[in-house]
Amino acid sequence: MSEAASTRTPVALLPSLSPLLREWLPRQRWFAGKGHPVTGFALVAAVELLPVDSVGPGLLHLLLRVRQPGQALGLRTTAGHPPSALCEAAAGGDCYQLLLGVRGAVPPYLAPALIGRVAEGPLAGRTVYEGLHDPRLAGLLLERLRTPGRFGPLRFERAAPVPGGLRARVLDAEQSNSSLVYGNSLILKIFRRVYPGINPDLELPLALARAGCGRVPAPIAWFESDTPEPCTLGVLQPFLRGSQDGWRLALKALADGDDFIGEAQALGRATAEVHTALAAALPTVSLSGSQTRHLATAMNERLDAALRAVPALLPYVRGLRAAFDAIAGATFDGDGRAQRIHGDLHLGQTLHTPDGGWSVIDFEGEPARPLDERRRVQPPVRDIAGILRSFDYAARSYRPWNPAWAARCRAAYCEGYADASGSDPRAEAELLRAYETDKAVYEVVYEARHRPDWLPVPMSAIQRLAGPAG
């Protein structure tokens, strides 16, 4: 089946793959629909990056809509415009990016990547597997990124030269996406669930690189699809070899009985530098009363849903609502602005590099939220609240619990942020408290559903945040 044929036979291709994908997809860590049966598929786009009818392995790139029970069938317009084609696809199921290897038979080293043998259709008799685990196919992706241009519906771009001949390995730690590390010098993040529009994990690091901010690895190359409309599929950046993420570093400090004040203060400065650069590179707005009312309403709605899911929150509901209602209609002078932010910042999204500095990574935002929501301007204290909650989690995940350690880290982080930005986030106490409370409510629901043994961690924060402000 040639590249040209791949556009002629999608109707036959998908039914032949469906039985295999229906079993394989729900087992993948990045699949967001776990716990719900897959009821159908629709092919959004298909292209052969390497022909699948040759003697060697082929590489089939798919954008695939996955249908599951309970997904919304209705569509909302945005600013009076009709929903986009990919949004229409999303209304009938999430759209996923798949890179499938195709061989007559897989060698033993690829056995863990096996999807299955195709029984009928254009790939009948061939074996299909997760292509990223095949070094040859992973190397082909790097070669495509080295040479900008189009390949069917795919478009490859680069901002700097890309070295070749680097052996690839899959990074096992990834959750909502997949990543390939090339020769310990480059990392390619491949977005699994895709949405129309530019992904913030490309948009924001590009803006920061153009602004001269060295706290974020600059994109070197990326690839996109324009069928049925533009969407970001993958980003290649420097791999910060020898770095340690902030979460593991904090846990090590706790285990060794060390404080984390210097590191926390430096991380606060790094966060402020990123926020300052984003505010200079992209539009900002002043927080209006209508915007803060909208924030408070959304937070209260999330609390309502959480109360239904976790009745243990009920004794604290009055204090929690008070935290949200305190910002409803409020306006903020001076630094009360909304701008582009990270959107999902916590210690695990930071890297402490071998030279002792901090880098911030993974600007995708919360993957479960719609892309247009993740790209909205928001108050910078939302990011700060995420880090403050992360210090609390670290302290309370170690035995014996050490809330005093978290309090010192929180103070040091805010001091570092103030030193670099000229604005102490603690001066926006009501807004910061509201975002911390909203985050803690989310954490309670998550832990109740997935890790009940961890529920005391966010519940201790709920008790603190529901008390009198100040």
UniProtKB/TrEMBL annotation:
Catalysed reactions listed for this entry: D-maltose + ATP = alpha-maltose 1-phosphate + ADP + H(+)
Alphabetical keyword list: ATP-binding, Carbohydrate metabolism, Glycogen biosynthesis, Glycogen metabolism, Kinase, Nucleotide-binding, Transferase
Domain Maltokinase N-terminal cap: from-to ranges: 24-134
Keyword Transferase recorded: yes
Gene Ontology terms, MF aspect: ATP binding; kinase activity
EC annotation from Swiss-Prot or TrEMBL: 2.7.1.175
Alphabetical list of SUPFAM superfamilies matching this protein: Protein kinase-like (PK-like) (SSF56112)
Record carries keyword Repressor: no
Pfam family for this entry, one: Mak_N_cap
Superkingdom, taxonomy of origin: Bacteria
Subunit text: Monomer.
Protein name: Maltokinase
Native species: Streptomyces pacificus
